Amino acid sequence: MATTKEIKKRIKSIKDTQKITNAMYLIASTKLRKAKGELDRTRPYFTAVQDEIKRIFRVSQEIENRYFYPVSGEHDLPGSYGYLVITADKGLAGAYNQSVIKKTLEIIKEHENPRLFVVGQYGCHYFASHNVPTEQCFLYTAQNPTIGRARDIGNILLDLYNRGELSKIYVVYTDMKGVIESEVKVERLLPFHRADFIIEDNDEKELKTPFEFVPSIESVLENVVPSYLTGFIYSALVDSFCSEQNSRMNSMDSANRNAQKLIDELTLQFNHIRQSAITQEITEVAAGARSMKKLKHNTNKGGAAKS
User: Fold this and answer.
1) Cα–Cα distance between 82 and 190 in angstroms, integer?
2) Running DSSP on this structure, what letter comes out for residue 169?
3) Could you give the CA distance from residue 264 to residue 123 in angstroms, rounded to a whole number?
4) Least packed by Cβ within 10 Å: which of 140, 167, 254, 285?
5) Distance (Å, rounded) from C-alpha 287 to C-alpha 7?
C-alpha cells in the first residue's frame, strides 16, 4: 500500500499536469475565436466572387472552359489526381489528425498515381514514416492560416492543373459541424461542376438583368477562378484550424476532468490512510494507558499484600 507521502507526491504531479492541460484549453479557445472572426471578415469577398461566376452562367450555361467539366458531363478524366491534405503541426487534439490521414489513405486507393500536397507537420511526418509518397510538404505552419498562404498553395496547384499534370484536384480537410462534432470532408477544387453554380428559383428576377463581360466571358473566368480557388483553400485551412482547436479543447477538457477524478480518488485514499494511522495511534495510546493502569494496579495490590 502506498504511503501518505507517496500519495501527496502523486497528487502534486497530477495538479501540475492539470495546470498545463487547462492552459492549453484556454489557448485553444482563444485561437478558435480569433480564427472564426477572421473567416467571418473575409467570407463576404469570396461569396461575391462565387456570385460573379453564377452571373456568368446566367448569361451562358454552355461555356466551355478548362476549369469546368465539359458540357457533356464527363467525370472520369484521365491523368493524375492531386490531393491537398490539411493536418495539424502537433498532436494532443484527439482523433483530429488520424481522421484526416485515414480518409486520405482511403481515397488515394481509388485512383492510380495520386499526388499528395500536405499542410501540417503531423501529416508530413506520418506519410514520410509510413513510406507514402508526397509531392510537396508545405514548410509553413498550419497554425494561424492566412490569405497569403492560401494563395501560394492555390498558385502551385493551379499551375500544375494548367500544365496538364493534374486532371483533378481535391482538398481533404476537417469541417467543424458543432461544438462537439467535426467531420472530415473531401471536396473537389478543380474542375468545377456546373451544378456548383446552379441558379436558385428565387434568383428568377435577377435572370432578366442583362450582363456584359469585358473583354470576354472567358477572360473574366480566367481572372475570377484563381481568386475563388484561393478563397476555397483559405476557408478549408481556417475550418481545419478551428476544428483542430475545438478538438484540442475537448481533449484538454476531458484530460482536466480525468485529472480531477484521479485527484479526488487519491485524496480519498490519502484521507483513509491518514485516518487509519490516527486510529491506530489512538488505539496504541489507549492500549498503553490501559497497560500502565493495570501495571500500577498490580503493583499497588502487591505492595499492600506484602505489608
Assistant:
1) 10
2) E
3) 38
4) 285
5) 29
Q: Omega into 70 within 30° of 0, i.e. cis?
A: no
Domain ranges, ordered by start, for the chain: 4-15+258-306, 30-251
Q: Residues 119-130: pLDDT tens digits?
A: 988 888 999 999
What percent of the chain has a predicted confidence (pLDDT) above 90? Answer: 9
**Overall fold of domain 30-251:** Pyruvate Kinase; Chain: A, domain 1 (3.40.1380)
| 244-250-252-258 Cα dihedral, nearest 10 degrees | -150
Place of cell 478548362: 66
Gap between the Cα atoms of 126 and 118, Å rounded: 11
The rounded distance, in Å, linking the Cα atoms of 184 and 195 is 22
Q: What is the per-residue pLDDT across 177-236, written as a single tens digit (0 to 9) for each?
A: 766 677 888 888 888 776 666 655 555 445 455 666 667 667 777 788 888 888 888 888
pLDDT number for residue 146: 81
Q: Look at phi and psi of residue 49 and say left if phi exceeds 0, alpha if psi is from -120 to 50, else beta.
A: alpha
